[in-house]
Amino acid sequence: MSNLITNEKSGPGRYFVVDDAGLTSLVSTILLAGSDLATTAWERELMTWFAEHDQNVMGPGLIGFDLDEIAWQPEKFAEQQAFVIRVIDAALGRHRWESLRAEPKLAPEQLRRLRELVQSYRVEYVEPAKRWVWNTPADRIWKCPVHNVYCHGQGCQICNDR
Ligand SMILES: [Zn+2]
Fold first, then answer.
1. What 8-state DSSP symbol labels residue 44?
2. Could you tell me the pLDDT band of residue 136, with boundaries at 50, 70 and 90?
3. Which label site among 133, 144, 156, 162 has the fewest CB atoms less than 10 Å from its CB?
């Protein structure tokens, strides 16, 4: 099945499609890089939000996302967008890819597509007081002791992908 990664507010054509295996590897590479780079509460929340896109829990073909689902904070948008780009660049540099079960062959192309989407998202799109829509309680943010990546309520995406 396929999953759509979109940025609908920036106009039609701003999306790409990933299959189920591709989405797992895309999210895993982001978690490996971003979990090491995250320092602020928002950055840890963002990684937890990515972690929730785990098809081992959510089911295949159900977990694409739109960049507008991220709880951007307008007053901090520039630094938050820069953080996401920094995470993607670290992932493109194969940050801790040796932790993955298999070489994520499609991840470089997907990460480049995601990078373009993130760059085309604008602060004007952010609604005031935007909140995360997720299942993990904010006081339950935790990291997998094996992979040192942020997890969701049902565990670690990289552990689940075994
Ligand atoms: Zn794990």
1. H
2. confident
3. 162
Identify any residues that bridge with 5 across adjacent strands, giving them in sequence order. 16, 65
Contact (Cβ atoms closer than 8 angstroms) between residue 81 and residue 115: no
C-alpha 156 to ligand 1 mean position (Å) = 5
CA 96 – ligand 1 centroid, Å: 13
Tell me the pLDDT tens digit for each residue of 73-120.
999 999 999 999 999 999 999 999 999 989 999 999 999 999 999 999
100 vs 113: CA distance, rounded Å: 21
Q: Using an 8 Å Cβ cutoff, are 88 and 115 in contact?
A: yes
Q: With contact defined as beta carbons under 8 Å apart, do 121 and 67 qualify? A: yes
Place of tokens 């759509």: 4
pTM: 0.94
Residue 6 CA, ligand 1 centroid: distance in Å: 27
Q: SS3 for 65-98, per residue?
A: EEHHHCCCCHHHHHHHHHHHHHHHHHHHCCCCHH
**pLDDT at site 133:** 84
Distance (angstroms) between ligand 1 centre and the Cα of 12 equals 36
Q: Where are the domains of the chain?
A: 2-160
- What the block records as the tokens of 109 is 């192309």
User: Cα(24)–Cα(60) distance, rounded to whole angstroms?
Assistant: 10
